[in-house]
Amino acid sequence: MTRVVDIPSSRVSNFFRFQRDPLGFLVDALPLGDVVSLRTSSFQPTFIVNAPEFVQELLVHQEDKLRKGRSAGVLRRTIGDGLLTADRTAHRRQKRYLTPVFYKERINAYAETVLAETRKAAESLREGVPAPMHDVMMQLTLEIIAKTMFRTEVEADKAALADAVDVTIRRTAATIFSPLILPFGWPTPGNLAHRRAIRTLETMIYGAIAAARRAPDAYADSLLGLLLDTKDEDGEPIADEEIRDQMMTMLLAGHETTANALVWAWYALERAPEAAAALRRELDAVRLRERESGAALPAGELYRELPYARHVIQETLRLYPPAWAILREADRGLEMLGDRFPPRSSFLISPYAIHRNDAVFGDAAAFRPDRFADGGASSWARFAYFPFGGGSRGCIGSQFALMEAVLILAALAERFEFASAPGQGDAVPEPLVSLRIKGGRMMIPRRRTAAGPAAGADASAPERPEAEAARGSAPAP
């Protein structure tokens, strides 16, 4: 018996509804069935994939029969043939030489940079003065990726670089789902702005490559140093163009996504005060243990001592996954779990929608970090929760990204509580290449009245039952 169902609405109404509200369209398609046919042309039939087992087929078991297709073609305009856009053989080759950048010992070293840069960013925040959180987080994660991956200082240029990233993201998003893709060489205002932004980013990248060639020892433990040492199949160094593509990939995929997730985290914590209180208790308990031992924890160890902060980020990635949609295309016919799909089939997988399945998560719209406590995620199907994708094309830097987000969250939450500036209303998701809050979010930092546990309180004590219950019914962010 087939598990593919036809969407009841017409092709024309589907098109306009998706263009107007892609997230709403995908969430509404979730209860329709495991695989939903959009009843598009027989030349290129399109399906929305909702069932975790079909997602696993596409991303893991049959990934060699699929390609990223249209989305990769558009992304190549900015990042070239880097890890995010390379197909099959090229992707496997690139992943092999990039994997050492994300070994555990290197991530522990990166953690120190994350903490240092976050504490610097905290000094720039002013008590009671509204801050544009998207800009603050973008510039912070840009500084971190430049220092950890490229050993490059961007302090003087980070605002211009962050603006250039924003332009490339907006132009890419506008193109991916456009019914008509104009050649990149055409001098339209959008293309001209996009190419200027790319030149801004390339100026930094090629400058870093030149500096690394002059003093390679200073870059030995960085992504850039690894790329300079990498040899191709003939034993020759890889070309500067390939180094540029990998650096551009890490620059865009490695900081914009984390910045967006962090803005969502601050917003969600504001609307779930019990979760925010639990986070503060964890931070205070860690600092109390440090004072008792007389030594501060190294950043890598601190990360491991913050399970609730990690759950906050994991829950944020459930409700607001940066990669809100994953596209795959099949050149040839495909058989999956008893159903056949014709040649040139396109598959749209939405973590944003699948993560909102009440049958899996229960009250899925609520922000409840405790879902991830005590191995809660192990009870879910493998691809019921997949904010970093999966298979060989899953995010190579997922552990770095999780560590970075947790330490930034902890370092700022230890000093400040953030409240949305009045007059903004509820945050509206904007599905660009990465999921962000539409228009950004102005938030007011308030210094915590006490650093550490309240007098006479046991910071390591578990929550009272009534507090746990209240957190379980926190309003949806």
Element layout with pairings:
Elements: E1 4-6, H1 11-20, H2 22-29, E2 35-37, E3 46-49, H3 52-61, E4 66-67, H4 70-79, H5 88-98, H6 104-124, E5 131-132, H7 133-150, H8 158-176, H9 189-214, H10 223-229, H11 240-271, H12 273-293, H13 299-304, H14 307-319, E6 326-330, E7 334-336, E8 339-341, E9 346-349, H15 351-354, H16 358-361, H17 398-413, E10 416-420, E11 429-431, E12 435-437, E13 442-447, H18 465-472
Helix pairs in contact: 1-2, 4-8, 6-7, 6-17, 7-8, 7-11, 8-9, 9-11, 11-14, 11-17, 12-14, 14-17
Largest sheet: 6 strands, mixed
Bulk shape: globular
CATH superfamily placement: Cytochrome P450
Radius of gyration: 23 Å
SS-based class = alpha+beta
Taking strands numbered 1, 2, ... along the chain, how are they ordered across the largest sheet?
Answer: 1-2-3-9-6-4
CATH architectural type: Orthogonal Bundle
Mean pLDDT: 90
Helix content: 40-55%
Q: How many β-strand stretches? A: 13
Family: Belongs to the cytochrome P450 family.
Pfam family, one: p450
Keywords: Heme, Iron, Metal-binding, Monooxygenase, Oxidoreductase
Protein name: Cytochrome P450
Can you put this structure into words, describing what you see?
The protein is of the alpha+beta class. It has a single domain (about 5-470), classed as Cytochrome p450 (Orthogonal Bundle), CATH 1.10.630.10. The chain has 18 helices and 13 strands. The chain has helices at about 10-20, 20-30, 50-60, 70-80, 90-100, 105-125, 135-150, 160-175, 190-215, 225-230, 240-270, 275-295, 300-305, 305-320, 350-355, 360, 400-415, 465-470, and strands at about 5, 35, 45-50, 65, 130, 325-330, 335, 340, 345-350, 415-420, 430, 435, 440-445. The strands form 4 sheets. The protein has a 6-stranded mixed beta sheet. Strands 5-13-10 form a 3-stranded antiparallel beta sheet. The protein has a two-stranded antiparallel sheet with strand order 7-8. A hairpin with a 2-residue loop joins strand 7 (about 335) and strand 8. Helix 12 (about 275-295) packs antiparallel against helix 14. The longest helix is centred in the middle third of the chain and has 32 residues, at about 240-270. The radius of gyration is 23 Å and the shape is globular. The relative contact order is 0.16. Residues about 450-475 have low confidence and may be disordered. Keywords: Heme, Iron, Metal-binding, Monooxygenase, Oxidoreductase. This is Cytochrome P450. InterPro entries: Cyt_P450, Cyt_P450_CS, Cyt_P450_E_grp-I, Cyt_P450_sf, Cytochrome_P450_Monoox.
